[in-house]
Amino acid sequence: MTAPALQLRDASIGYGDVAIVRGVDLTVDHGEAVAVLGSNGSGKTTLARGVLGLATVLGGDVQVLGAPVGRLRERGRIGYVPQRHTVSGAVPATVREVVGVGRLARLGLFRRLRAADRSAVADAVAAVGLGDRLGDPVASLSGGQQRRVLVARALAAEPELLIMDEPTAGVDAASQEALAAVLARVSAAGTTLVVVTHEAGPLSGVLTRAIAVDHGRISYDGPLAGAAPDGGGHHHPGDPDRLEPPRYRQDQPRVTTDRRR
Amino acid sequence: MEVLEFGFMQRALLASLMVGLVAPAVGVFLVQRRLSLLGDGLGHVALTGVAIGVLTSTAPVGTALVAAILGAVLIELVRARGRTSGDVALAVLFYGGIAGGVVLLSLAPRGQATNLDAYLFGAITTTSTADVAVFAAITVVVLAVVWLLGQRLYAVSDDEEYARAVGLPVLALNIVLAALVASTVVLSMRVVGLLLISALMIVPSAVAQLLARSFRQTLYLACGIGLVVSVSGTTASYYTGTPSGGTIVLLAIALFLLVTAGTAVSGATARRRHQRRAEVHAAHPHEHGENCGHQPVPHGDHVDYDHDGHLHAAHRTGAGVHYDEHGQHTAPPAGTAGRS
């Protein structure tokens, strides 16, 4: 493949006409595993949402899988794991049903899930270690397990580019390890990974490159090992993984991102 | 049956059957989307359509359908554009709809049938043969669309942002759903009335949610419940002389309360049974472990111990450890970490 998985040139991204991310240049090649680091309000989530077409590109150029973000036809090639703490909606749904949604984007508007799709769904659920819970209501799963269901939903699409927003936040250690194992397999299979996170620690075995976002600009771009030399324990100038007091910014509709009206 | 001897009751029962089936089939998606009151709002808008039909001497069902669908499309466009203004815009549209309907109906020339009550609360026995034909067409179209697009409508109702990110046509699907709601509103107008329409969309779904494990089960169960309460409510209203709409809705709510109470009681019973077993084993002479002499049996994500032919599973609580019977258990305890 010639075009990079992601290419941002002088890109400004935001909501309405307010730019949160400004003048960013970034290229991510196929098969890379990238952590997008930054504190709350740094703009890292907005950056990812711009790539997903959920935030507005206000200036510059954002190319995803070789096409401008607004004109990418086969969006099903992108997998997305949103920052959500639970899956369960108002009406009960099984793991199979939730993950099945991940398959729909590949099927056009009218085709129904076929046997091949159902087995892809089962494979994705098995990959996140919930193979025996396929028919269970998602509401009966723990928070960490529900998060893994969202990962399975993205995997079911067999995406070329997988974008995840804080997949490890608020997840127990066992689920974090399971997630790291899944991502290692997915990455080895050639999928490009972009993981937005405030601490890359739990996934440091998988992610190799780090991009730090600070005040809407990229402040570091290099090996993950260089970004957090010893797990982020020592905070020194230039350490993008350092914890800063959260600043309130309008780009963080954190709790309500799933169901905005 | 006496009730079937009259043509008007035959038509009434046919209409209630279709309404009972269709309203919950659309309502389940509204509940999932947390837009339970959309049907109510579109009922308000439909009243303006009814009034226009009366004023222009055309069939009110047709004009109500056009008004409700236009209102539905408008609402989705407003929702897609604005974030904070959407709520207010909906309210303006809804109240504009009912106010417009009342004012326009008052302008109708004297001697014309302008019985507002019939539209607000339903007048199922006035269903004409032509109405039944229109209702049947609406029923077929709505059920066909739900069958064809149900998985997509579920996807958009469940997680709109995700659906947008992976390229599902979110706005188009939302408009389709709103148009389905509008069609259902018009279909239900004669049976339950514009003010009670939402109840028949939402309450059967609320009952089904308490019993089902999957979205598909909820959908089918809600349709079944809707069908039963709608037909039996209409039949009951014939014998008791009460309005069909109110009777149907009260029946549905009674069922909801009954099932709510039932699930609460069965939950409490299960907890008590668990406690009783825990008491039996509270005085367990030792804590099961590697060398306790009881055969360990792997069970999902934990180990049970074979204790005289039945399985003991450790259940740690704040008060210490007790042993649950896992001889009959099929599902691992909720909230445990899964294997990988």
Note down, in words, how this protein is organized:
Chain A is α/β, with parallel strands linked by helices. Chain A has two domains: 1-69 and 159-246, Rossmann fold (3-Layer(aba) Sandwich); 85-158, no CATH class. Chain A contains six helices and ten strands. In chain A, the strands form two sheets. Chain A has a six-stranded mixed beta sheet, with helices on both faces. Chain A starts with 5 loop residues before the first strand and ends in a 34-residue tail after the last helix. The model of chain A is unreliable at 229-261 (pLDDT under 50). Chain B has helices spanning 7-32, 38-55, 60-81, 85-106, 116-121, 129-158, 160-165, 170-192, 197-211, 215-240, 244-282; strands spanning 295-299, 302-307, 310-317, 320-325. Chain B is elongated and about 95 Å long. The N and C termini of chain B lie far apart (61 Å). At the A-B interface, strand 6, helix 2, helix 4 and helix 5 of A face helix 1, helix 6, helix 7 and helix 10 of B.
Give the secondary structure arrangement, pairings included.
The complex is a heterodimer of chains A (261) and B (340).
Chain A: E1 6-15, E2 18-28, E3 33-37, H1 44-52, E4 56-64, E5 67-68, E6 78-81, H2 95-104, H3 115-127, H4 143-156, E7 161-165, H5 173-188, E8 192-197, E9 209-214, E10 217-223, H6 224-227
Helix pairs in contact in A: 2-3, 2-4, 3-4, 4-5
Chain B: H1 7-32, H2 38-55, H3 60-81, H4 85-106, H5 116-121, H6 129-158, H7 160-165, H8 170-192, H9 197-211, H10 215-240, H11 244-282, E1 295-299, E2 302-307, E3 310-317, E4 320-325
Antiparallel strand pairs in B: 1-2, 2-3, 3-4
Region (Disordered) (chain A): 222-261
Organism (chain A): Geodermatophilus sabuli
Keywords (chain A): ATP-binding, Nucleotide-binding, Transport
